[in-house]
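Weekly structure sync, notes
Attendees: PL (lead), two postdocs, one rotation student
Agenda item 3: pending single-chain targets
PL asked that the sequence for the first pending target be pasted directly into the notes so everyone works from the same version. It is reproduced below exactly as submitted, 383 residues in total.
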Amino acid sequence: MIIALTGQRRVGKSYILRQLATVIETDNPKANIIYINKEKTKYSDIRTAEDLSQYLEGKLVEGKDNYLLIDEVQDIDGFENTLRSLNADEECQIVVTGSNAKMLSSELSTYLGGRYIAVHIQSLSYREFLTFHNLDDSDNSLQKYLGFGGLPHLYRLGLENEDMILEYIQNIYNTIVLKDVVQREGLRNVTLFENLMSYISDNTGQLVSATSLSKYLKSQRIELTPLSAINYLKAASNAYIINKVPRYDIHGKRLLETNDKYYFEDLGLRNMLAGLNRTGDIEKVIENSVYLHLKNLGYRISIGTVPNGEIDFVAERGGVTIYLQVAYLIVDDKTIEREFGNLLKIRDNYPKYVISMNQMMHSQNYEGIKHLTLRQFLMSENL
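Predicted structure, written out during the meeting:
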């Protein structure tokens, strides 16, 4: 089986690949490891599948355990043809990394259907963030995570220089736009793309429809059809900037085809686009952090709909479903009725949670619905 490590640029795919090479060398000193890093000029001549096949000639040793590790494989045009041939001949174990989801949805799935395993690499979870930065679980640590996100290289920069961190994240974003949107997807109007990303950052966790996009485009005096705008958002999803989350009719038990929501793959990237510490954004950031943690725990996520209401997240894993509502603060009976009341409309026995920043509600349950503080939730390994 071919193993494909996917994820946004700079989340640590290359490092994991290097770690894997070290493990192989330790466990099997006689292994023949061929390592190609397409981000280095040393391998710039490997542009096509033919170039890759030619490069590998004579490097695969018969009778040895051969391993082919390729970093950023999508930069090799037609790479899937060579991988398919190598896989069919069982000449080597193949592990690749890629920074574009289109690599899986088209190239790999078309040519290697059933013969590869995809492993998605996310930015650091809150627990991993604490470990990386040698921090205790505290309100201050949580604020740093919600503000700066979980890109591993922030460890090298430290968390004190806000300007340096934002500049670093901006540079990563520029690279993603150039390599994974403009070059990969062929979208040329970068200004328009960035306007749409600003719109999504400002509307994180809000329903996005053709109508809402049309209103936004008109307000910006941009001549672009809503369908074309959706295609731009798809390009951003392919580059792992944002994730589209569909709506799910809980009573009808079916996915709905319109009005999706979008969440960012990394909180720091979202905040760089929207503006760090912007007034009124905390609820959007909290909701995005809950989404990322559910994804980190391996849940399949959708937005729930109930009569006259909405459930922030419906998460399913291993045949078990959980329902979650997310709020900044629960300050009065009206908020309790809204956040807990929508969950009470669901007539099944699956676990239901409300996540908020309220410390005074640390252990409070409400008619069988469990309340967790955001820190409790982000520190959890199972729900």
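Discussion points:
- Residues 126-379 form one domain.
- The longest helix spans residues 162-185.
Action: rotation student to compare against the earlier draft before next sync.
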